[in-house]
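Could you help me review a protein record that somebody else here produced? This is what I was given.
***
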Amino acid sequence: MTAVTGAKPHPIFLAGKWVESDDPLVVSNPADADNPAGATFHASEAQYEEAVEAAVKAFEVTRTLPAYERGAILRNISAGIKARREELGRLIALEAGKPIRDSLVEVDRAVVTFRLGAEEAERMVGETIPLDLMPASKGRVGITRRFPIGPVAGISPFNFPLNLAAHKVAPAIASGNPIVLKPPSKDPLVMLTVAEIIEEAGPPAGSVSILPMSRELGDRMVSDDRFKLLTFTGSPSVGWRMKERAGKKKVVLELGGNAGVIIDKSADLDWAVRRNLVGAFSYAGQVCISVQRMFIHEDIWDAFMAKFVDGAKALKLGDPLDPQTDLGPMVDANAASRTQRWVDEALALGGKALLGGKADGTFFPPTILTDVPDTAAVCSNEAFAPLVVAFPYRDIDEAIRGVNDSFFGLQTGVFTNDLDHAWQAFHQLEVGGVIVNDVPTYRIDHMPYGGVKDSGLGREGLRWSIEDMTEVRIMVLAWPS
């Protein structure tokens, strides 16, 4: 069953079965409000219960599934996604409004994510630990192994509807855990299409469900103690409230930020401009590690800003399906109007717009602000929009303080050819990742990824996700003497 725009609503994937419900879900097209991207269904309460009960039952099978079978399932999913690359890329562009070039890159990343999951499934190693550290423990050695923890509840966001969902499904399968995934209601069709691929890959019956659901059912999933781990990617306000309701289950939160980047006076200027144009404006800034705050050394301020503004002017705003488009629409009109309010506030507080600043329906142009007080929403909160605020600085200490002056701490980019400054940034920045000579928006899918402060809890990246989805167990061997 393949999702096709204008076709019959796509059924939902309940524990290996394709079902419908009495609650239809129309999926809008952010670039064309008159032509929806497609339709599917919200799961009913009974369907939710069936999925959770199936996951609990499936755990008795998945917990003992050998590594070669888990690896084979994941490799088959990876190959299936690769084979349907163009279809999935177009679907992301239609329902998420993401430019087709970026949509296809997301599909390529998901291919890698599932392949990495297969590799990690096959190298879940333990260790031996000498225990004879005192006379009473003579003749004893410990052996550790990681065991799956049980059913996983996954909630994924709209901005990477395929690959961020893959970062929940792939490690769950790799570690021997069933998963019930709530995809985003704004763009669920791509993961429902991937569910067709998952079905063909042959996971144990009931071990994977992909269920769009209402917020009320999503709240029930958060507090449901049959799940042993909740993994959520989304907004900080929602994520931290979920943690309060999650009970005794493990919780992994991949939340937002207002990522900073430092442009040192020793930086390669043209490279820094080129990469920051990508980091600030890709997918209309709707990336949790999008460049939002730029700290630029005063000695190169004029040169950098002139090149950066000229580069932003050259970006093409338009149809996500056009391969020449750099920026598509924001995900909906509410996102565009919120961005407009925040820009208006910044200008009212004395800020200046060097470029952009005016919404056109769901489209918002590249926007560059200066002289904005750091108390303005565009500085202190997560903009999630195609806008950056630029600040000059005199020395690296000042720049690091500026980045750290935030509730968030996800990733920071540091453009420098001064090794001392790179090391200082690594040691002093309060973030989950320091990206030297690239933007904070950089991520490859096997690295540990996550933040500190309000930006989250735990790490994603296949190996690190698997650590959260498993428990360490030790066996102590004693030799009688």
About this structure: The CA atoms of residues 29 and 35 lie 6 Å apart. The longest strand covers residues 140-148.
